Amino acid sequence: MTTQPPTPTPTPTQTTTGGRRRTWTRLNPLLRLLILTQLAFNIGFFAVLPFLAEHLGTAIGMAGWMVGFVLGLRTFSQQGLFVVGGALADRYGVRPVVLVGCVLRIAGFLWLGHAEESWAVIGAVLLIGFAAALFSPAVESEVARQAVVWEEAGGGSRTSVLALFTVAGQAGAFVGPLIGALLLEVDFRTVCLTGAGVFVLVLAGHARLLPQHIPGRARVKARGGLRGLARNRRFLALCCAYGAYLLAYNQLYLILPDEVERAAGSQAPLAWLFALSSLLVVTAQLPVTNWAAHRLDLRRSMAAGLLLIAAGFAVVAVARPAGWTGATGLLPAAGFVVLLTLGQMLVAPAARAWVPDLAEDGRLGLYTGALSSVSGLIVLIGSSATGSLLDTGLPPAVPWLVLAAIPVASLLLLPRHSGPRQGRGRGHQPGTARR
Asked: Region (Disordered): which ranges (predicted)?
């Protein structure tokens, strides 16, 4: 599969659906395949995941602590092992790692659909998580590498490609639960079988379309990568700043439900707030990315996003002492969701686009996986601390103020230089940009 020469860089005004389509049609076939892969991954996954906890508690009869333990195992087997999947992609190539990951995900969903004992559920969940630890960093690292190549060929900002990747993932996360909710009217097994069916289609498509060897991607030895990564202070600093963003984003599931319950008397409005976040990403991610690409380098883009996230927490902190309830009481929570989502639109593509500049030659998969694993560990520790903070009996505004301070403090961790302006694509960057 050859890379087609892209056409000139789009202008900042290409923020409409037409501009999005033009960006899509100018991408090479491999990039389009990988972006559609992200859409399919999330449709299949999120058709099942939102209904797992209820299934474990009612159909399987697990205690609440056990349900939480199983969900935590899934996160660990996925996020914590991203670094393993990334290293394997560097060593053996994208195609075999993605195909094996899809096979394991199919097996995991089939097993989960038929599991009736706790040990079987745990085994299935671990398999489902490890499958993603294989295929996700392989796909993400190749999208990042191809985005750099696209930028250097004059196609435009690498963040535009990564933003399209984010939109595809968010669209899948939005559509998946709708499909799962419809199928749940039959039973949970049908939901799992459908999720497995989606990955069967992904497996078949990749077996046919994904190249055996991707031009410019050299395989490297497995040894030595972690040692260099551990000494890469700029990359580790980026991981910490990205971890601060992920910790803030995870408050959608920890501190926001408490605030919604307080203001509305139930958590029913949460679904609308989550839908608002998804809709913002799907409709505004590319316009925001195009705007930032012509005005901000990667460091400033991340800094602006982190400040927006901090402002979201501050909005609730300022309003919380008033004790508003009802529709008025939900306005600060809605403001928090909007600002957090806008911050995400700036931070996530910029962080992914920055990794190729900091990675060693041939180790982009390892570094892409490490970004998720290190930041995931930060979220695990930070979420535990946040939960403790909520139980201390402090004034209600204090936890929100503390959480607002975290992304602000993380600005000090951002590496000082992020290369040329995102949208110009001049010269080459360290690491994979030279390949």
From this structure: 1-20
CB contact at 8 A, 289 and 345? yes
- State how far the Cα of 161 lies from the Cα of 152, in Å rounded to an integer: 13
With CA atoms as reference, report the closest residue to 292 among 283, 282, 303.
Answer: 303
User: Which position has the token pair 């990334």?
Assistant: 86
- Closest to 42 in 3D by CA, of 214, 243, 278: 278
Q: What is the domain partition of the chain in residue ranges?
A: 23-211, 221-421+429-435
Give the torsion sign (CA, 217, 219, 222, 228).
Answer: negative
As assigned by CATH, the class of the 23-211 domain is: mainly alpha
The answer to whether residues 87 and 221 touch, using CB atoms and an 8 Å cutoff, is no
Answer yes or no: CATH 1.20.1250.20 is held by domain 221-421+429-435.
yes
pLDDT averaged over every residue in the chain: 84
235: exposed, middle or buried (C-beta count within 10 Å: 0-12, 13-18, 19+)? buried
Please tell me if the domain spanning 23-211 has the same topology as the one spanning 221-421+429-435.
Answer: yes
The pTM (predicted TM-score) of the whole model is 0.78
* DSSP, res 253: T
Q: Is 66 left (phi over 0), alpha (psi -120 to 50) or beta?
A: alpha
Helices and strands, counts by H and E, the chain: 17, 0
Query: What DSSP string describes 368-398?
Result: HHHHHHHHHHHHHHHHHHHHHHHTS---THH
Over residues 217-260, the pLDDT tens digits come to 666 665 667 888 998 999 999 999 999 998 898 888 778 888 88
Distance CA 281, CA 163 (A): 9
Residues 377-403: pLDDT tens digits? 888 788 778 777 777 778 889 999 999
Look at residue 300 in the predicted model and tell me its pLDDT. Answer: 95
